[in-house]
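FIELD: query
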Amino acid sequence: MITINKGILPYVSISLLILLTGCKSELYSNLPENDANSMLSILLNNKISAEKTVDKKAGTYFLYVDDSQIPQAVTILKEYGYPKEKVATIGELFKKEGLISSPLEERARFIFALSQSVQETLSQIDGVLVARVHVVLPENNPANEEIKPSSASVFIKYNPAYRLEDMKSEIKMIVEKSIEGLTYDKVSVVMVPAQFVSKN
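FIELD: result
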């Protein structure tokens, strides 16, 4: 019966990983599962030799491609808006660390979290490469008769293969319904098609 010294198991695992990935190099690391699956599918559909591995302890994924195809892989994934920018969750932003936040700090963090949440929603639209949302929630004094309305400005860079200009009204509606007190006419949207380098 063959026995293996437990002390060398980590080295055996690393060796097996190298054998499995062959002449491939790590392209991206610490990816969430959904992004890793989407990126792998995109690369394989574009005839890029790619593989993914998982770090079970961290619950994150690694993406590998052939050394000779790294530039092409990066370009293709960029055209699809990958890797996605990590968006901080409300839970992360409002994590308590034993310090008492001032009302001003709490308000600033709330507005930022709200913007991040809407950005994440817009980023899920097919063809969106970059989404930025800036929310303005004025502090209205009950003693003042004039109430300043809330407003939001949205910037979107998109893949020109997708006709997202036709969705501008839907995008404004998504933002309007995501922010309490915001009206449709107070949402401004700027959409810019990405310029890709020719592959020829």
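FIELD: remark
Residues 22-80 form a domain with the Alpha-Beta Plaits fold (CATH 3.30.70.1530).
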